[in-house]
Every structure is written in C-alpha cells, then in structure tokens.
Amino acid sequence: MTKARLAAYPALRMRRLRQSDWIRRLVRETVLTPADLIWSMVVHEGEGQVPVGSMPGVARLSVKDAAAAAREAKALGIPAIAVFPHIDGAKKDASGRLAADPDGLVCRAVKAMKDAAPEVGIMCDVALDPFTDHGHDGLLQDGRIVNDATVEALVAQGLVQAQAGCDILAPSDMMDGRVGALRTALEAEGLQDVMIMSYAAKYASAFYGPYREAIGSGKLGTGSVENPGDKKTYQMDSANHAEALREVALDIAEGADMVMVKPGMPYLDIVRQVVDAFSLPTFAFQVSGEYAMIMAAARNGWLDEERSILESLGAFKRAGAAGVITYFAPRAARLLGA
Ligand code: PBG
C-alpha cells in the first residue's frame, strides 16, 4: 500500500484481525468439528485388514473390525459411517444379484456396527457396482444401462439394507426416479424413519479411480459398445452446473432428506450453488482420488499431510456443506483434538 493510499484509507488494515491466534479464532467464519464427518469405510468378507495400495492409511475391514471401528467413531465424536463392500469376484454376476441378499456382507456389517455402537448412524450405498461383474451401477442390456429395471433392483437392495438397521440410504447410482421409488417402498414397508441422502449431483469423474481398487470392482466394462468403459450415460458431465440444480430439485421432490455433491474439492462451486438454492442439508464426498492425491503428495514430502487434510475438509464447511464424507474421518477427528 502506498503512503497516499494509507492516508486516504487510514482504517483499511485487513491484517489487524490476523495479528494473533486469539483474534483469528474469534473472527473465524466457519469451523470444522468431528460432528461434520461421515467416515467412509470399506468392508470385506475375510478376517483382519487388507490395506488398499492406492489409499495409504485405508484398509478394508472385516465385519468384526468394522464393529470396533463403529465404537471408535463414537469415541471420536464422528456421527456416522458410510459403508462400502468389497465383494469376491467369484460372487459377482451381470445382475448384481447379491446386492439384495439380506445375509450379505453389507447387512452383516450394518448389524454388527449397530450392535457395537447404536449411537452411530450407518449409511449404505445403494448401487449395484460392487456386485456386478461388469462394474456398472445398473443392469446392462445391449450396451445400455437400463434405468427402470435397475431402479427395481435398487429398491430391493435398499429395503434389505434398511431392514438390517441402516439409518440412511444413499443411492449413488444416478438412475432417474430412484429416490422416489425408494421413498415409496420405505413408506410401504413401515420404514418411514429411514433417511435418504441422495447422491444428487454425482459426476462422471476420474477421481473415483482408487475406489475401484478399494472395492475390487476392477476396470470398468471392456470399453466396447456392449460394455461401456465409463459411466457417462448416467453420471453427470463435469462441465455442468445448472443440471446439478435440476437433479437436486428432483431428488428433493422425490423425497430426499439430504443431498450430496460428489466428488468434493473439484466441485465446491456446485456445493455452494446447491446450498444457496435449497434449504436442506447438503453434503460433499471427498472421494478416493482426493484422498490419494493428498496422501501421495504428502508421502513425497510435497505437502504437509496434517495441514492439507484439515484445510481440505475445512473448505467444505466454507462452501456451506453440512458435512463431508471422507476416508480421513478418524484421522481428522484426532487432529481436531477429539
Ligand atoms: C458407485 C460409487 C462410486 C463411489 C461411491 N459409490 C464410484 C463410481 O461411481 O464409479 C466412489 C467413492 C470414492 O471414489 O471414494 N456407486
């Protein structure tokens, strides 16, 4: 600032409110706490923990370890866990039949976690991709992901999850009409208290890469016409923002209690737009690729790991999110002093 400018605006010293920690804390506009975190967790059929190579610090947990993790979440003040299954390749088929198995891995994990820590909310992914041999979220017919038949399969899946004790159904498949179908089925089955957090604005993104390894869904399709190698006919085009608002409006009309934007950090503009346009809790998913980027850079000594974790999570609060689904949840809760 020049002398002339200082003279013209004698009061204009923005740094006054940054001069020490106490005043920075006092004027801070948003805060991140463990209560903002949903712990993204992968479970598997086997015993013990299997580290996920592309996500240092993340391992697939046995059902038993998932129950222990639920107790840990409670101790750390993390309100909820989002559970994702790693299914043995041999058990997958084209229709993802096991998605609706009431004795399947997800349902057993939900029961074990609710028994271990009833105070912790459990959220389940409603989508077929962990269970299909082609890796798509829906049913594949002549090279197309068919919408309405998929919605039927998703309703069957959502109902067994809800019956197992899941608190929040989180449809991540991006089929049209699935929120309304799930809500109607829940009401009909007397499960009206089960919440729906829709992945309302979910983009076809490269940032889901490490998740494929985590849940063992392999390389998507074959890339041939019969079996497309991407999810662009159902997930959103990353260039779009107005479309995200239409998706959210529809999901609210169909009965979603909460909505989500996914991925997270590259889509903070969408989080902000949704928060400003609608009055309902809006979450963001800090996805596997975002986790991997931070960890990879930190392991190379290129980023300060702890500061990057907290800054990235705090950014979601600044964008207006009610909370963040993140693989960093237990780590972040500890860093926050839980
Ligand atoms: C699929 C699903 C995906 C994720 C959650 N549910 C991947 C995809 O849509 O291809 C991604 C999670 C992550 O990357 O952390 N229904």
Task: Characterise this structure.
With 338 residues, the chain is of the alpha/beta class. The protein has a single domain (35-337), classed as Alpha-Beta Barrel (TIM Barrel). Helices cover 38% and strands 17% of the residues. It contains 12 helices and 12 strands. The chain has helices spanning 3-8, 21-27, 63-76, 105-116, 147-163, 178-188, 209-215, 242-254, 268-277, 288-299, 305-318, 329-335, and strands at residues 37-44, 50-51, 59-60, 80-86, 121-126, 139-141, 144-146, 168-171, 195-202, 258-262, 282-286, 323-326. The strands form 3 sheets. It has an 8-stranded parallel barrel with strand order 1-4-5-8-9-10-11-12, surrounded by 9 helices. Helix 3 (63-76) packs across helix 4 and helix 5 packs across helix 6. The longest helix has 17 residues, at 147-163. It starts with a helix and ends with a helix. It binds ligand PBG. Ligand PBG is lined by residues 125, 127, 129, 137, 172-173, 208, 211, 231, 287-288.
CATH superfamily, by name, is Aldolase class I
Mean pLDDT: 95
Radius of gyration: 21 Å
Strand sequence of the main sheet, in spatial order? 1-4-5-8-9-10-11-12
State the CATH architecture.
Alpha-Beta Barrel
Domains (count): 1
Brief write-up:
This protein is an alpha/beta fold and 338 residues long.
Topology of helices and strands:
Elements: H1 3-8, H2 21-27, E1 37-44, E2 50-51, E3 59-60, H3 63-76, E4 80-86, H4 105-116, E5 121-126, E6 139-141, E7 144-146, H5 147-163, E8 168-171, H6 178-188, E9 195-202, H7 209-215, H8 242-254, E10 258-262, H9 268-277, E11 282-286, H10 288-299, H11 305-318, E12 323-326, H12 329-335
Parallel strand pairs: 1-4, 1-12, 4-5, 5-8, 8-9, 9-10, 10-11, 11-12
Antiparallel strand pairs: 2-3, 6-7
Helix pairs in contact: 3-4, 5-6
The protein binds ligand PBG.
